[in-house]
From TrEMBL, chain A:
<keyword id="KW-1133">Transmembrane helix</keyword>
<dbReference type="GO" id="GO:0055085">
    <property type="term" value="P:transmembrane transport"/>
</dbReference>
<protein>
    <submittedName>
        <fullName>ABC transporter integral membrane protein</fullName>
    </submittedName>
</protein>
<feature type="domain" description="ABC transmembrane type-1">
    <location>
        <begin position="89"/>
        <end position="297"/>
    </location>
</feature>
<dbReference type="InterPro" id="IPR000515">
    <property type="entry name" value="MetI-like"/>
</dbReference>
<keyword id="KW-1003">Cell membrane</keyword>
<dbReference type="Pfam" id="PF00528">
    <property type="entry name" value="BPD_transp_1"/>
</dbReference>
<feature type="transmembrane region" description="Helical">
    <location>
        <begin position="218"/>
        <end position="241"/>
    </location>
</feature>
<comment type="similarity">
    <text>Belongs to the binding-protein-dependent transport system permease family. CysTW subfamily.</text>
</comment>
UniProtKB/TrEMBL annotation, chain B:
<keyword id="KW-0813">Transport</keyword>
<dbReference type="GO" id="GO:0005524">
    <property type="term" value="F:ATP binding"/>
</dbReference>
<comment type="similarity">
    <text>Belongs to the ABC transporter superfamily. Sulfate/tungstate importer (TC 3.A.1.6) family.</text>
</comment>
<feature type="region of interest" description="Disordered">
    <location>
        <begin position="293"/>
        <end position="317"/>
    </location>
</feature>
<dbReference type="GO" id="GO:0043190">
    <property type="term" value="C:ATP-binding cassette (ABC) transporter complex"/>
</dbReference>
<comment type="function">
    <text>Part of the ABC transporter complex WtpABC involved in molybdate/tungstate import. Responsible for energy coupling to the transport system.</text>
</comment>
<dbReference type="InterPro" id="IPR013611">
    <property type="entry name" value="Transp-assoc_OB_typ2"/>
</dbReference>
<dbReference type="Pfam" id="PF00005">
    <property type="entry name" value="ABC_tran"/>
</dbReference>
<feature type="domain" description="ABC transporter">
    <location>
        <begin position="4"/>
        <end position="234"/>
    </location>
</feature>
Length: 311, 385
């Protein structure tokens, strides 16, 4: 179904995007309609990125935040010669995968619950997913401090139930970072999956059960493949956001050398070390890695999404 | 053995009683149509049979087994849904093979059997198509093949033809009938379309307000309806209000709003307890097919002076009234005349092929045999004459 001719060498989603863009660009009218968006993207996304790219290529040997007009790859030199990059990548990707996996699983069940519920319960479930979106990121992330810290609520409860003998340090630490990050992205993931489920006909699940599919089987055979577009969107949002996360690792992480998220490394170079060419070089490398991993991720999910189609 | 027994089946949604005390035995290999207007509980009854709804009371037996609390996926029923409910992300063949896949049939075998089923419903060439690209009639066939592929003991059809146009629906009725005869499986078919029910059914179960009012062979429920609801629901009829004037051993005389007395012969086997009392109000059903019409002057020309009171010999139960044609409705093969008689109006029908069409304003004489008239009490129950 994918990769008909010349585009077959590309990963399926890219090939599809390319095909649809080519098809669309055939019509001048469509191009005209897209113009405002293109201008918007150029001004607010492409142009700043080019500036960023330019700064990453300046000479950092002068005692300046960055030296306009100079050319050098010293920024990238520092990125690739120290183990900071590798540590940060490892930590961020791990955080991204872990947070994404947890988020998507919870979000799928949660979205299914919203879809299947009715009346007040449905409103309550939807409301409680939207409510966190109305709160500032920093506040809701910071709220995990009193909850998860060694003398916080969770430890108090665990201690009083005699489940643990000594307080566990969730925060600051990686457990706290993951929990905080999941909490940040979960609403978006839930809404992405729910929006797809909402358009689905419950009748096909009944048909599956009628034909002998058990409850879990009918969900796996009928609901998941149908919800796949939403699950893919949820995964990409969760992953991109978690890998590039700044608030959760910054507020809830312990900041140890090997447990430092990428965004924190960039921040340090940018605001503490005042080495903009290094900071921007990190950002550029990170961006490329992100693009590659999201393409891989989407392709993988599409592949598994397609698996369900075989009878 | 797949005889189905429903006993005292009830489904309640909060305060709403959707299905009330439905009891019926469906014979092995029988095609039973549940017929009723929307909201009569027929689909809910079917869904309980399928296991998609849990009854709040009563029992369902399929064969010797009590399946009341058994989920849909553990029942030997298969359903064809009203909106077909085909799986959109699977091909036509995968849709049909789905049930076999769930049963654990091997890939090659289930594909082969799915192909066979598709051939049977003449959809073989669409095996690899996306079901969403099919027409309504084609989707219907795929849904049927999908349900038949699991070789169910009971096939449940939930208004499967109601989304098709008239012609297609009629073709499918014949095909369903053929498939039923070929498979000799038990079919339960839900519909609100009486033509469909009469074409398909071995027996018809009429539902109203959640209750199963009458079960019987098509001609039996049509000719011998249990109450006024069924008489009104099946086909068209004129209800004429009247009051019992006097009863004799042979006949019942009813003074009607037609401005004259209608004589109904008594069949004689009626229970005395069921006898009508004088002054009791009744509704008489005059079906258009029992009414014959002719120009009014044809009747008066043979010397009849009082045209609403023709000469009647003893034992003759012919009744006649004269009225004025109010309007004429062409309905394709038939013409329907609405005729004003005294304070009320009745409609009569003629096939287009009959000679002598009438126009509005014409006086016509309507006559019928009193033996063809059914009478109903105020509470809707049928009067056993």
């Amino acid at each position: 179904m994918s990769g008909t001719h010349s585009s077959s060498a590309l990963p399926a989603p890219i090939a599809r995007l390319w095909e649809s863009l080519r098809e669309r660009s055939r019509s001048k009218r469509a191009l005209l309609l897209m113009a405002p968006l293109l201008v918007f993207e150029l001004l607010l996304f492409v142009a700043p990125f080019l500036i960023l790219l330019r700064i990453s290529l300046t000479d950092g040997s002068q005692d300046l935040r960055y030296a306009p007009g100079t050319w050098s790859i010293s920024g990238y030199g520092e990125v690739f010669t120290t183990d900071v990059l590798l540590n940060a990548i490892t930590y961020s990707i791990k955080l991204g995968l872990l947070a994404t996996a947890i988020t998507v699983v919870i979000a799928t069940f949660y979205a299914y619950a919203i879809w299947r519920s009715e009346g007040l319960v449905k409103s309550a479930l939807l409301f409680s997913v939207i409510l966190p979106l109305l709160t500032t990121l920093v506040i809701k992330t910071y709220a995990f401090m009193p909850l998860l810290s060694p003398n916080g609520t969770l430890n108090d409860v665990l201690l009083s139930l005699n489940l643990i003998s000594e307080p566990i340090q969730f925060v600051p630490g990686t457990v706290g970072v993951v929990v905080g990050q999941v909490y940040i992205v979960l609403p978006y993931a839930v809404l992405a999956i729910y929006s797809v489920l909402a358009t689905m006909d419950w009748g096909i699940v009944e048909a599956a059960r009628d034909l002998g599919a058990s409850r879990p089987r009918s969900v796996l055979e009928v609901v998941v493949p149908q919800a796949m577009p939403g699950i893919i969107v949820a995964t990409v949002i969760s992953f991109a956001w978690s890998v590039g996360a700044y608030a959760a690792p910054g507020l809830l992480g312990d900041g140890q050398n090997k447990a430092r998220a990428f965004a924190l490394v960039v921040e340090e170079q940018l605001l503490t070390n005042l080495q903009w060419e290094v900071a921007t070089a990190y950002a550029v490398v990170m961006l490329l890695l992100m693009v590659v991993s999201i393409v891989l991720l989407t392709a993988t999910l599409n592949y598994f999404g397609g698996e369900f189609e075989y009878a | 053995m797949s005889e189905i027994t429903l006993s005292g089946l009830e489904k309640r949604y909060g305060d709403t009683l959707a299905v009330e005390d439905v009891s019926v035995t469906i014979d092995d290999g029988e095609l039973l149509c549940l017929l009723g207007p929307s909201g009569s509980g027929k689909s809910t009854t079917l869904r309980m049979l399928a296991g998609l709804e849990t009854p709040t009371d009563g029992e369902i037996h399929i064969g010797d087994e009590d399946v009341t609390d058994r989920p849909a996926y553990e029942r030997t029923t298969a359903t064809v849904f009203q909106d077909w409910a085909l799986f959109p992300h699977k091909t036509v063949l995968e849709n049909v093979a789905f049930g076999l896949k769930m049963q654990g049939t091997g890939k090659d075998e289930r594909r082969e059997r799915a192909k066979e089923m598709l051939e049977r419903v003449r959809m073989g060439e669409y095996a690899d198509d996306d079901p969403m690209n099919l027409s309504g009639g084609q989707k219907q066939r795929v849904a049927l093949a999908r349900a038949l592929a699991v070789n169910p003991d009971v096939l449940l059809l939930d208004e499967p033809l109601s989304n098709l146009d008239k012609r297609l629906s009629e073709d499918m009725q014949i095909e369903l009938r053929e498939i039923h005869e070929e498979l000799e499986e038990t079919f339960v078919h839900v519909t609100h379309d009486q033509d469909e029910a009469f074409t398909l059914a071995d027996r018809i179960g009429i539902m109203a307000d959640g209750s199963l009012v009458q079960v019987g062979e098509p001609n039996e429920v049509y000719e011998n309806p249990k109450n006024r609801f069924i008489e009104a629901f099946l086909g068209d009829t004129n209800f004429v209000a009247g009051e019992v004037e006097r009863t004799t051993a042979e006949s019942v005389h009813v003074e009607t709003e037609l401005g004259r007395e209608v004589v109904l012969p008594r069949t004689g086997d009626a229970d005395d307890a069921d006898a009508l009392t004088e002054g009791e109000s009744v509704a008489l059903s005059l079906r258009p097919e029992v009414l014959s019409i002719e120009p009014a002057d044809a009747a008066t020309s043979d010397g009849e002076s009082d045209r609403t009171q023709p000469v009647r010999t003893d034992g003759d139960t012919t009744n006649a009234v004269v009225g004025t044609v109010e309007n004429v409705l062409y309905r394709g093969s038939t013409i329907r005349y609405s005729v004003a008689v005294e304070d009320t109006s009745v409609f009569v029908e003629r096939t287009v092929a009959d000679s002598g069409a009438f126009d509005a304003g014409d006086e016509i004489r309507i006559s019928w045999d009193g033996a063809d008239v059914l009478a109903f009490r105020d509470d809707g129950s049928r009067v056993d004459l």
